[in-house]
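Worked example

This section walks through a single chain of length 231. The input is the sequence exactly as stored; nothing has been trimmed or padded.
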Amino acid sequence: MRRNLIKWCCFSILLIAAFFLLSGKETAVFSEKEDIIIRRFSTDKREVIILIETAFGNDHTAEILEVLKKHRAKACFAVMGLWAEENPDSVNKITENGHDMISHSMHHPHYSELSEEEIKKDMALSFLQLKELTAEEIPAIHLPFCEEDERVLQVLFENGIVPIGCGIDSLDYTGLSSEKMAEDILIKIKGGEIILFRNNCENTAKAIDLMLTEMDKRHYRSISIKKILFE
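Given that input, the structure is written out below as tokens.
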């Protein structure tokens, strides 16, 4: 844990220093949304991250966990603090199965409509909630509504929080069939992708199953998000 914390601090310092050098200014101000959002990661291996937005409802979480267990696949659950508070048993199952959890805010507000202090308070509550339930804190957040407001990103940057986006969105919330979701993802997939699903869409678990079955054939594997943040 101490070694990981040291690595994270070094990463943050290097990120800040690099940005200052590029901007040539005393204060870091983001000119583009791509400055800090991680949508994919650099790798020469067939590795991806499965990101599961976990916020509203809990009808299909157990099914998703069974699919991941079947394929021995890792996933990162972006969990809303209120959801974790209301579903502690599911949180325990996520951690017992070796999956990561990052913040998806405490109450799922539009951060772009909040003040800086309100944003920091909501994030702090979500991190506290996850730490109490998992005894682990990963300094990363998948923003509510996938908002990419520059002022919000500035707050995250100044507080050492990494925003996690996605390179491939399953679009499961649109009602796509499992087959169509898997097909669309597999056309786009390559090493370094972050693939987004949501925990309470009816066809998501089967889509993940179909995707992982084909990924196994192509020798792809899903990895822990901690690997790209701390290693």
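What to look for: The first helix runs from residue 2 to 23.
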